[in-house]
Amino acid sequence: MKIAVTYENGQIFQHFGHTKQFKIYTVENGGVVNSEVIDTNGSGHGALAGLLSVRGVDALICGGIGGGAQAALSEAGIKLYGGVSGSPDVAVEALLGGTLGFNPNVKCDHHDHHGEGHTCGDHGCGHNCH
After folding, report:
1. Which pTM does this prediction carry?
2. For residues 25 and 35, is the Cβ–Cβ distance under 8 A?
3. What domains are there in the chain, each with its CATH number?
4. Which pLDDT value is given to residue 6?
């Protein structure tokens, strides 16, 4: 199994589509056996999902992520754990231990909605409260 984490300066980077690096963990028998930091070379949302897919990534831990990127990851068969911050190493260990706190309905709040006045209404309670 491989787990990728958006990565910057030793922390989980908070905007999937703008991440310049991923830290990729190789997991065998329930434990991390290897990790490496790779550059994304400026890829966009869809290309980032493709980059992870080509590397055999099964799961992604990240902060914010937009709907288009979520769809691209889903199409690539990559499970998403969004809304996570802090240390990538701690997050991966928590995921492996079944204790990772993540938001299954995460939305990226960094996008410019071009004057649509869009608000997601998600305040972390697990559903959208409009």
Report:
1. 0.81
2. yes
3. 2-97 (3.30.420.130)
4. 97
